[in-house]
């Protein structure tokens, strides 16, 4: 593998890692803030316990999200310095805003929330959490706006040296690609949090029932409400994910037609175009001919244009069109590295785009189905004891994580061979574009990037183990009784006696964990 390949693997691996934490931070943050709000409004102990239990998991994940995010930032300078120079004029302001918001809003207010229990007025304390959560969401907007600019560059003019010069920051901020991707990503994050509440809640309910524990106390309510809240949030979020995804799909047909046609394995232009449900044969070779698939007639035309007859351009025609405008071969210039003089393949890896798109939708649907099952199984106070159902729901916590990862893999691998995709809405001589092959740092060697790739993957692997271990520990322990911080208006109750396989007395374990998490 040359530098380019290794650098791409490195970016892909580390970023997908970062995005395991991100949707949980965003989604769980919103839900914990809702739980806290419910406690302030109703004063019911179960809402307090839920806030504290899920709040702790939120915080552990947040710390790991920040750690993995910091590493992300280094990569731009290390492996992708040409890219950083190219996008500098546009990204400077976006990323500065992101950092400002992230560090000031998120960290300050989260600190206030963590240390504020029982020390500041209840409502101020609640407002601090909301401020932190909103801070994360706003910072997500800026980073997505940066990514969307790569998918669909707006608000720029071509400068003397061929680089984009920002002329309209407002246009960058209101890029339709960004609005669609942001709404899709936020609701996708809610699916992640919803699935976690459902999986863990069902598992705890079943465990308590099998252990003969009461179903009338606040601890039971903690898990029951977690399942109900998580289930409804998942279902509602799935509907919104589908609506926003459809919006994105329509934009993509205008903005990145090759990405979408590759995702559908549509080799020849068709009118009406049919939608492929399952394709096989030759996808792996990246040569789009003779792909066999099971199709629904007209559906692709509908998804692209809202009618059942319009033409949708196929991969092969688009490949030719792009080659005519942007060149059939890479310029024979050292800045293109090993690719200099090579033919340009404008078709992204077909098998990846095709399957990542389907995996995203499929795992999302699995998650929605599990949520529906959980709501049905817990209707009117019921507690499911089905081993398959409950353990299946616990396993399905992974599904929306997979959907998020594959969604990004589709978005990012589907824009290849460009790192900044030309915007077809403007005349060709006003377009800016940049090939991934030009984007790597000129000075680095494959060996250097290999070293950092191995080091980063090892560190991230270790972090993931820590995160999983900590979260599993908390999940197995269940709710703490709230006496760890004196909270006005809350009466501590004796710890429950669930045998979770732990060896130390419950009270001690609360303390030692608190010293870590807080
Ligand atoms: Fe992120 C943390 C940098 C993608 C959402 N990220 C975080 C931090 C840095 C970055 C330096 C730690 C400091 C802070 O709290 O802000 N993030 C990046 C880079 C990315 C990236 C360079 C591009 C590849 N991040 C990214 C996306 C989103 C987020 C696409 C949202 C959709 N990032 C967040 C967050 C985090 C965060 C929710 C995640 C977990 C956390 O804060 O604790 O704000
Ligand atoms: Fe990205 C790349 C994922 C975000 C920028 N990414 C990449 C890859 C992947 C990813 C997988 C690889 C691809 C290829 O190569 O083919 N991302 C991702 C995820 C996320 C992201 C998961 C979420 C977190 N990005 C992002 C953002 C940005 C970016 C936000 C900006 C700001 N990417 C990027 C770059 C790169 C990438 C620059 C390199 C180049 C290429 O294309 O590769
Ligand atoms: Fe998704 C992406 C659609 C589901 C997550 N998505 C994406 C895209 C599209 C879509 C079109 C691309 C964009 C671009 O590239 O620009 N989806 C869709 C649909 C559906 C879905 C239609 C069905 C319903 N998703 C889903 C789910 C999830 C997701 C379920 C999770 C949970 N996605 C996602 C992500 C991404 C995507 C994360 C990346 C980012 C953006 O937004 O872009």
Automatic annotation (TrEMBL):
Q: Which organism is it from?
A: Geodermatophilus ruber
Basic and acidic residues bias (residue ranges): 503-512
One GO cellular component assignment for this chain's record is: plasma membrane
Q: Where is this region: Disordered?
A: 481-512
GO MF annotations in UniProt: electron transfer activity; heme binding; metal ion binding; oxidoreductase activity, acting on diphenols and related substances as donors, oxygen as acceptor
Predominant cellular place of this UniProt entry's protein: membrane
Q: Which residues cross the membrane?
A: 20-41, 53-71, 91-115, 127-146, 181-205, 226-245, 355-376, 388-410, 449-471
> What is an annotated GO biological process for this record, any one?
aerobic electron transport chain
| Record keywords, A-Z | Cell membrane, Electron transport, Heme, Iron, Membrane, Metal-binding, Transmembrane, Transmembrane helix, Transport
Q: How does it sit in the membrane?
A: Multi-pass membrane protein
Q: Where in the cell is it found?
A: Cell membrane
Which family, according to the similarity comment?
A: Belongs to the cytochrome ubiquinol oxidase subunit 1 family.
Name of the protein this chain belongs to? Cytochrome bd-I ubiquinol oxidase subunit 1 apoprotein
Q: Which domain of life is it from?
A: Bacteria
